[in-house]
Give the backbone structure.
Amino acid sequence: MNIAERKAEHRQPFVRVVEVTEDDTDPAKWGKNWPLEYDGYKRTALQTGTRFGGYAGSEALPPEKIERDPWLARMFKGYAFSIDYRDRRGHAFMLSDQEATKRLTKPQSGSCLHCHASILPLYRQLGNGDAMAGFEHSFEYSYQELSAKLHESGHAHPVSCVDCHAPADMALRVTRPGFVRGIQALAASDAPVPALPSIALWRQGKRTAPYDPNVDATRNEMRSFVCGQCHVEYYCSTKMILTFPWGKGLSAQDIEAYWDETNFPDGKKFVDYVHEETGAHVLKAQHPEFELWNQGIHARNGVSCADCHMPYMREGAAKISDHWVRSPLLNVNRSCQTCHRAPESELRARVNVIQERNYELLQRGGAAIVALIDGIVAAKASGATPEALAPALELQRRAQWRLDFIAAENSMGFHAPQEAAKVLAEAIDYARQGEIAVLRAQAAARPSLPGGAPAALSEE
Amino acid sequence: MNIAERKAEHRQPFVRVVEVTEDDTDPAKWGKNWPLEYDGYKRTALQTGTRFGGYAGSEALPPEKIERDPWLARMFKGYAFSIDYRDRRGHAFMLSDQEATKRLTKPQSGSCLHCHASILPLYRQLGNGDAMAGFEHSFEYSYQELSAKLHESGHAHPVSCVDCHAPADMALRVTRPGFVRGIQALAASDAPVPALPSIALWRQGKRTAPYDPNVDATRNEMRSFVCGQCHVEYYCSTKMILTFPWGKGLSAQDIEAYWDETNFPDGKKFVDYVHEETGAHVLKAQHPEFELWNQGIHARNGVSCADCHMPYMREGAAKISDHWVRSPLLNVNRSCQTCHRAPESELRARVNVIQERNYELLQRGGAAIVALIDGIVAAKASGATPEALAPALELQRRAQWRLDFIAAENSMGFHAPQEAAKVLAEAIDYARQGEIAVLRAQAAARPSLPGGAPAALSEE
Amino acid sequence: MATKDRSEPPSKRAWLLRSLIPASHGRKQTSSLVWVLAVALGLSAGVGAYTFSYAKGLSYFGTDPRACTNCHIMEPEYAGWQKGSHHDVAVCIDCHLPRSFVSKYLVKAENGYRHGKLFTTQTFEEPITIKPAGLAILQSNCERCHADLVHDILRPERGGAAAAAAEFPCIHCHWTVGHGERAGLGGPLSATEFGAQPDAPNMEIRD
Ligand SMILES: [Ca+2]
Ligand SMILES: [Ca+2]
């Protein structure tokens, strides 16, 4: 193809060969209008991997995280994640991988589908045209019930064009009710949002209408919000509506405070599960990429998810966003080098230094949490009372929350290296303090020994 | 002044009005040739301060760090730093502040002067013309003896032009034997040096001559090496020559390994002091700015100390280095905005976020080390044997080394935020493990209790 | 769907656009009054006929990059441009002045007025940083030359180059195309600088 043809090929303005609507969840149809983006999108079915990212193997399913790091399974005792918890992979697999997970052998809610399928038409159906209303009932269904409806409805697709784009003009938009409710709660709070200027601006306004990302956010923010619809911490079960816990801010500490003050609709204190071995009431953290990214220097500089995970690429005479969403380490020249004038090898090395430090601390935390659980188990065996163990159990909750927050986050610390290390440092401190509390409790049972009363929690 | 004059100023060539030599330690004389730099240099006598940096008060001496953070004094029990340890301030004070410190009430070595005075002429005198030879004897003198000689010699000035500049052509050069020996040991090792390209290059060569910073280093490296002559971890006493412990690398871990394998000339195992209360053999870390900077992203990007602490500035049409060495937070437009396209308020906020996170972890570490010392003291009181406490004492050494490394470093984590947080996380882990080891030791004394043998150190 | 609201950006977004510009030092945008003034009296109104002609005011209207370096203060950018990826395809005014004849000379007058005055009085902030107005012009020029290539990634319905400049400009990623790494330079120590440091009470003020 010569330049003349290139130009010709491009000069035709954005012709739409087919009309697309809110109900077109099949990406193939959109692909007729935007074949270049569709090509990239389809590639998410290819298996790619890096030291810490993705999955490049040939087995049907990615490897089990819980086998690679047994301390994860130990933390999750008593919860579905201890049964089956694997590496993630490309978007094309999101629905089938969900349907294949053994976590579904435990009762799960319809909320699961919020982030694994192109579900808006189904929400509208449930809400007689009102997607938000439909969403508000979706959690009451069992996963199997809602999944059946989804397949009937013919919209059983992984995330599709319509989930991030307005069919009318292809503008980015968020469609996920969970995100809209979460970001509105964040905007309504006074938590600092240095990386989200449009929220700071909305707060200065009259606040007549709630913050609406599709109206108030900048184009640059939308390049991260579309991802924040799913790559976030959440609560999801039939007990309570799907919740993004952002009412007090986006840091691990803010979110812990939010859960600490949350009650279930039945009034009971919020908890994810009771640890099978220790009886501690613990929290489960899920992939808080959006939250951790917000704590980092890239976010403060307005560097969006799409900048790194969907970099622009030159296709013939046109420049488009690479819709092959994947690890930027597979695409360093486009993902990093337009901003960082360093050789690819050097940029890889920088990521590696950051990730290895984070990995080392993560394993250190794993050792600490296992030691704590062992300690509590031994203490119970030797007859320690629940009262005496209470401080240790509270410390387990705090330690696990922080350790899980960074373990579940998928960049191995890269999205905010110092913050991730700080959260892990706190996790380690609480886990070890827990062990001490156990030993003190046992010692206390023997008046002759020093140590006395269970340790008070040292303040943050 | 109008454009005509500005142009004139622009053309002005610079003239040497006086000759300067190796023996001219008086900056005033150099100032005749280079008034703009001298003008800045003199300002280091102004007292400036920030939240964590410098000292802006009006008292004769800066405040005591050991009073602000009592856990520091507790760590230093049995060592001179527990008597008097203050905030640093400008270069103009370096000699008088040293002469004023109560640490001198304990015997100190002549080595102290290596970094507090313009001492090269005195080294040459001691070595009959050979500065290195003179340096090699200087540690044998008491501080008072050598200080007397310095004042006789008429060279009792704080760091002066001649310490960083060759009088002949004003080229940057390092003059401090301690640095030359240290950097040579680093070059001879195989420790990775991503931020020091000229060492990597030298290693690829024949290695006929040892690495010589004044010959082999790049100009950009020299902009940090001149500072690395003093802003480094060291050992300084009459027992052993002044040592920069770089033979295994520059990280806290590398340096710990170096000290662990060091013996005194008399063959005894190296140690800084024995902790008064616990008997632990501990290490003292001093201002490892050069070492921590080396672990950071700025260093990897070739951003030198001078870039931030002596930024270039425009004087009329000329471009000079601001010789008012101070906190860059007092100079954000010159120090940071030359590279970062963000408003001053935003850049301050970024530093603040980094420093506050680091400060929080530092205090967390302080609480942990105090708890450990308390635990050991209590155990000794209740008759625990040295053997039983050995693991706890070893853990105290490791914990203190790391905590002190970041506490003594003067950027409150900024020079390498993630690395600093990691070192603190390890400090906290070891301190808490120490407490556990103590409780286990006590429990072990009571067969009926669980826990059994003292905890083994968990590996890094 | 809410996307229709995007077509006419609410005024508060316009405000946001400005608030998002990096390093704008919050200096007020030159008022239209100054523009009128500058056009009416020409550059001389700003810097005086002498300064203007001496500063090769006429060459300022040409396209020769060296015209800009009549002010030494522009030299870092000149040097950066020479090493930059565009030195053989674009000169200063290609990126920094609008295309249309009229507005080009309006801006030249305004720049000449402001730069000249600021340069003579040395009252500008350093490092010199491109202002919102400058960024908008820049953006329009990137788009102009690369229209074919970037056609698909422009979102005119969110507002023109000014909106793009503030929300998601080309230089969000391509910030080195003009001058390579940033070429800013801090200015001389000034009296106001000391006054501006509350936490440095003992700081003397230099004459
Ligand atoms: Ca959760
Ligand atoms: Ca030392």
